[in-house]
Amino acid sequence: MASPQPNPSAAVVVPEYSPEERRLLLELAHRAVRASLAEREIDLTPPSGHLAEPRGAFTTWHLRGQLRGCVGYVAAVHSLYRTVAETAVAAAFHDTRFDPVNADEAGDLEAEISVLSPLRSIRPEEIEIGRHGLVIGLGRQRGLLLPQVPGEYGWNAETFLEETCHKAGLPGDAWRRGATIEGFTAEVFGDRDSR
Length: 195
Fold this sequence. Notes:
single chain, alpha+beta, Glycoprotein, Type 4 Pilin, Dna Ligase, domain 1, four-stranded antiparallel β-sheet, 8 strands, 24% strand, globular
């Protein structure tokens, strides 16, 4: 039996953020929520030039294995450091799908941060499950799903496109009928990775 040949297209992805930077961002997310509960402000001065760079990002909270909130900025509006703090608070207290996090829950929250690449137009046949996130829009309606979502639900590319349309409040086939399709990648890390 021949030994498997290396796949030249399977490039090793080198993380942009070091373990220390990831730890700082995860700690920041938790600190921002605790401060918000205590009605205190925190210092949002980035500790390094790298974390001061403007980046889009999402913060996702899980509580005992269940989604508890997810909010983010697609565009690079602020420094990544400030973006993580703001999206952590927004996901904990302002995700309209959930009641605001209370003080009893805060200590049990698990954070996951997704740092986004810039958006680019993508054709349906280019979508790679687990690699690409999607933004689909038509008129004023836009929906976004992160790269990890289709893998969590076992979706293929077509289902991923349909579900992103539904997230935008559009019919599932809008991606075939003139809606814009944009893709992005994300560096995803969380509290579970540091155990």
